[in-house]
């Protein structure tokens, strides 16, 4: 089969993480009893009017900023008119003509090369209610009606399923990171539709496109695109043509299936929403929102690697936002970041998982953590020591030095005490001293083992080795 | 019992002096409504609740001039626990679970809601004959229409059954029936009164306003219902003001304009004569009167049809039989539910307007018609604003004819818009406008004059209206009403 070039465009809907809905003061929540988060506005009762949740505008500005979009300063909402049981007013309030963000991009890295995925526009709209089909009946849950959404539309500039997946992962990471959305595809707070067409040469006109709707996971976006590309190729190779259509990905059969052929002239009778006046975005609003944008994942990645954190730890830190935030408070300090990252992602993470705490719920302050890292770095504390004192470090407010002291660890790191222990061991093992002198490697290991046994693992290994070698030399 | 023939000031004094109780007013109102039953002014009476409320008020202090006064509400304004039909079969079982903002305000002032008045279905019509509950009749002559769409409110006020009523005005629906029934009706500036709880016909034009027998009461009622509402983003941020404050002031030096179009041959001769008489009177009393040409006003009806029907087609989409209102029984599928509910639930005029509105917003038409109409509307607004730099008020007749026969044909859809040709420009420009009765035809049908003000200048309108009311001192008790 000759190679075809796919052209892919992706539309993503994400639910915004606001306290209340976009046009009413009902709570925006997931997983609550059906129709418990609704009021007359969400139900489209006669006489009701929309209000506008400012939080939505701020999150949309935030999203537009991190997606490198231009932000429109004067905008309005539009009504998209269509009848559907999940659409309480039988029109959806959206932004058809004046999307808040436009001309943006997301940068992905594919096979070591960077590529910008161009974003055509992003706009604000309201979610519909959720319908569940039971036999011949349809149940409607209006909890979702009026939940704020942003829709992000790429240009048809994605050329492989791999790129599509990378784009979605990057998008998800950004929106999640900035607290714009939960981005849970399984709960529907992030939904992706993909448009794909194929052609033989870059210079050919675009082929007939098919839309794959509501794909449930990022990996399924990849699979469904590949399947769809193959399906289209086969048809074209057989000399067949096909119509523009909407398909869905069926997880069970692992392929896309036809939902409907697109009819031309699908007419939503858009017109400006007369119940919501023009909205003006000021420079000040944008500045305010920008202040709330955290350091983005890409920048964190770069900084962490430059501080000597391993790639694995860098990625783990970025995925754990609270730990990453804690880590960021240390960036100006002169400490061993490798140890710091190991500490956070190792024993401290284990403690936090076990106790279901957030790092901010512990007594670990920036300064105490620095003290802890430095003690580890200077080998005053071994990882075994750390395990012993960790609960105290995270639950008490004493300085690390005090904790070390009160835990009896300090004695062992003390030169003289350790020297006494070592001298004793040497006294009692004269044969091994001879072995050592004769150049047997295992002799020193035996002594170290004895030291650790005596000190219950509490001795600083570097120091112990140093003293041991000195004492042996003197024999 | 003839308390309802007295002025609000007098009634208020009687209440304060405890010479009467609110229940006396309520009982009298219901007696009069009963006696005038053939006017068909009401769709629903709130008798039980109104009597109960009147009783409850007896223990309270009379804290404002509208305390205890019976009021009638047009049936497209949402009233909690009280049937709200919009005069449509599709809502004839609809008992709302919330109050419109104006209703909250009315209850706060302790006015007593007497009932819900008849109207054109969803406000779509100019004779109240599109009502699912049959047309109301004009108290001046029961063979005649009340006008519309606020026909029931106009009739019940004209017949002195209640002192206060609320109407709504999208393209003249307060002023035109006020003119036909000889009462005072004000459409306030767009945004003055919250639309929250007004069942939308054309969102960018709809406005609730007071309908009364006299000017002073009208201004009082407006005082009670205005104000910024968090629930309506199009409501104004203007501070509250006392709309009665200029009543009684001299009109000397007032600059008043009359659009030539308003006195052209589209208007019946006897109406123009009456207006000219008033104009002479005003000149005599020192007002400065000029004739002007306002661009675009002759296009107002066309623009109105595009904007109002376009918006209506979308606003009425929510009546689908799923959540409230009439619902086709045992539908085969969802389409059958939609088609059945809407075919059976809506009347002919409403369906006609939904279809035309949908067409006007379809595909390229939205840009060709709706958006273009919006932009011409802006120009018209600017044109009015320009004239209001020079003039305090604009006046003219409210209607081109007086009330016509109920039996006149309804098969000309354009006719109903032509009834509103002089009132529609005011909605298009978002301005305040008021009807004041200025006389009668030879067969005793009322003639109305329209007074148009600059945005948020309702107080100026009341000033002139009250002056005219005083000078003319007309007997506005219709022969047809039974109030003995």
Question: How would you describe the overall organization of this protein?
Answer:
The complex is a heterodimer of chains A (475) and B (484). With 475 residues, chain A is of the alpha+beta class. Chain A has three domains: 281 residues, no CATH class; 113 residues, no CATH class; 61 residues, Arc Repressor Mutant, subunit A. Chain A has 16 helices and 16 strands. In chain A, the strands form four sheets. In chain A, strands 2-6-7-10-1-11-12-13-14 form a nine-stranded mixed β-sheet. In chain A, a hairpin with a 2-residue loop joins strand 6 and strand 7. The termini of chain A are far apart. The model of chain A has no long low-confidence stretch (mean pLDDT 91). With 484 residues, chain B is α/β, with parallel strands linked by helices. Chain B has a single domain, classed as Amidase signature (AS) domain (Amidase signature (AS) enzymes, Alpha-Beta Complex), CATH 3.90.1300.10. Chain B is built from 15 helices and eleven strands. Chain B has an eleven-stranded mixed β-sheet, with helices on both faces. In chain B, a hairpin with a 5-residue loop joins strand 10 and strand 11. In chain B, helix 2 packs antiparallel against helix 3, helix 5 packs parallel to helix 6 and helix 9 packs across helix 12. Chain B starts with 7 loop residues before the first helix and ends in a 12-residue tail after the last helix. The mean pLDDT of chain B is 96. Classes of the chains: A alpha+beta (475), B alpha/beta (484). The interface between A and B is large, with 31 and 45 residues.
């Amino acid at each position: 089969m000759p190679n075809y070039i796919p052209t892919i465009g992706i539309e993503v809907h994400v639910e915004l993480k606001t306290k209340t809905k976009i046009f009413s003061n009902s709570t925006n929540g997931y997983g609550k009893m059906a129709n418990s988060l609704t009021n007359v506005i969400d139900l489209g009762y006669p006489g009701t009017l929309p209000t506008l949740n400012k939080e939505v505008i701020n999150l949309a500005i935030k999203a537009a900023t991190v997606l490198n979009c231009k932000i429109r300063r004067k905008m309005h909402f539009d009504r998209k008119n269509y009848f559907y049981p999940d659409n309480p007013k039988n029109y959806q309030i959206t932004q058809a003509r004046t999307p808040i963000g436009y001309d943006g991009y997301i940068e992905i890295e594919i096979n070591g090369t960077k590529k910008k995925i161009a974003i055509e526009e992003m706009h604000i709209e309201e979610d519909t209610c959720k319908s569940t089909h039971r036999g011949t009946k349809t149940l409607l849950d209006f909890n979702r009606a009026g939940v704020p959404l942003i829709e992000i539309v790429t240009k048809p500039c994605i050329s492989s399923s791999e790129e599509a997946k990378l784009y979605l992962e990057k998008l998800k990471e950004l929106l999640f990171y900035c607290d714009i959305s939960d981005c849970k595809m399984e709960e529907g707070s992030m939904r992706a539709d993909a448009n794909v067409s194929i052609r033989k040469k870059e210079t050919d006109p675009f082929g007939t496109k098919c839309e794959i709707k509501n794909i449930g996971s990022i990996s399924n976006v990849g699979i469904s695109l590949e399947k769809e590309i193959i399906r289209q190729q086969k048809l074209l190779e057989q000399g067949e043509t096909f119509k523009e259509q909407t398909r869905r990905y069926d997880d069970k059969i692992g392929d896309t299936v036809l939902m409907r052929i697109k009819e031309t002239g699908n007419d939503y009778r858009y017109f400006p929403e007369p119940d919501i006046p023009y909205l003006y975005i000021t420079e000040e609003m944008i500045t305010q929102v920008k202040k709330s944008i955290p350091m983005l994942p890409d920048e964190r990645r770069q900084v962490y690697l430059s501080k000597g954190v391993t790639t694995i730890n860098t990625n783990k830190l970025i995925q754990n936002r609270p730990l990453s935030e804690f880590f960021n408070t240390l960036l100006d300090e002169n400490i061993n970041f490798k140890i710091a990252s190991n500490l956070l992602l190792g024993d401290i993470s284990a403690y936090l998982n076990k106790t279901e705490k957030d790092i901010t719920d512990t007594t670990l302050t920036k300064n105490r953590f620095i003290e802890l890292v430095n003690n580890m770095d200077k080998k005053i504390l071994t990882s075994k020591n750390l395990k012993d004192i960790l609960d105290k470090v995270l639950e008490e407010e004493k300085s690390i030095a005090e904790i070390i002291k009160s835990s009896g660890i300090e004695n062992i790191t003390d030169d003289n005490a350790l020297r006494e222990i070592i001298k004793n061991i040497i006294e009692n093992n004269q044969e091994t001293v001879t072995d050592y002198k004769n150049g047997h490697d295992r002799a020193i290991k035996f002594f170290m083992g004895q030291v650790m046994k005596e000190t219950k693992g509490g001795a600083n290994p570097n120091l112990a080795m140093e003293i041991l070698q000195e004492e042996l030399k003197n024999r | 019992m003839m308390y309802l023939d007295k002025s609000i000031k007098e009634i208020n004094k009687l209440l304060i002096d405890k010479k009467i109780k609110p229940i006396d007013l309520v009982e009298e109102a219901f007696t009069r409504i009963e006696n005038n039953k053939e006017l068909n002014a009401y769709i629903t009476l709130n008798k039980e609740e109104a009597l109960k409320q009147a009783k409850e008020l007896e223990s309270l202090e009379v804290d404002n001039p509208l305390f205890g006064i019976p009021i009638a509400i047009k049936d497209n304004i949402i009233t909690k626990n009280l049937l709200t039909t919009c005069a449509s079969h599709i809502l004839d079982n609809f008992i709302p679970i919330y109050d419109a903002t104006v209703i909250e305000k009315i209850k706060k002032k302790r006015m007593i809601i007497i009932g819900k008045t008849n109207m054109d279905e969803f406000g779509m019509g100019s004779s109240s004959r599109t009502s699912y509950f049959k047309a109301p009749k004009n108290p001046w002559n029961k063979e005649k229409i009340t006008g519309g769409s606020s026909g029931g409110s106009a009739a019940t006020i004209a017949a002195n059954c209640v002192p206060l009523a609320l109407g709504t005005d999208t393209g003249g629906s307060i002023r035109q029936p006020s003119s036909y029934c000889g009462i005072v009706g004000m459409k306030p500036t767009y945004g003055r009164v919250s639309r929250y709880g007004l069942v939308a016909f054309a969102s960018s034009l709809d406005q609730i306003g007071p309908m009364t027998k006299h000017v002073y009461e009208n201004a009082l009622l407006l005082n009670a219902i205005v104000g910024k509402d968090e629930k309506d983003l199009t409501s104004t941020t203007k501070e509250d003001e006392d709309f009665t404050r200029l009543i009684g002031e001299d009109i000397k030096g007032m600059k008043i304009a009359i659009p030539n179009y308003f006195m052209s041959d589209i208007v019946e001769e006897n109406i123009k004569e009456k207006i000219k008489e008033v104009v002479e009177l005003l000149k005599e009393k020192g007002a400065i009167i000029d004739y002007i040409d306002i661009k675009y006003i002759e296009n107002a009806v066309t623009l109105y049809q595009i904007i109002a029907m376009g918006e209506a087609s979308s606003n009425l989409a929510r009546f689908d039989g799923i959540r409230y209102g009439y619902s086709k029984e045992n539908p085969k599928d969802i389409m059958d539910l939609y088609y059945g509910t809407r075919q059976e639930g809506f009347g002919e005029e409403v369906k006609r307007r939904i279809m035309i509105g949908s067409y006007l917003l379809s595909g390229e038409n939205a840009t060709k018609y709706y958006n273009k109409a919006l932009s011409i509307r802006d120009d018209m607004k600017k044109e009015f604003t320009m004239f209001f730099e020079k003039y305090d008020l604009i006046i003219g007749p409210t209607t081109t004819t007086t009330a016509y026969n109920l039996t006149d044909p309804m098969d000309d859809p354009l006719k109903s818009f032509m009834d509103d040709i002089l009132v529609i420009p005011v909605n298009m420009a978002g301005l305040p406008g008021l009807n004041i009765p200025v006389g009668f035809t030879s067969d005793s049908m009322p003639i109305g004059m329209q007074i148009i003000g600059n945005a948020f200048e309702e107080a100026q309108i009341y000033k002139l209206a009250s002056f005219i009311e005083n000078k003319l001192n007309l007997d506005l008790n219709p022969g047809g009403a039974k109030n003995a």
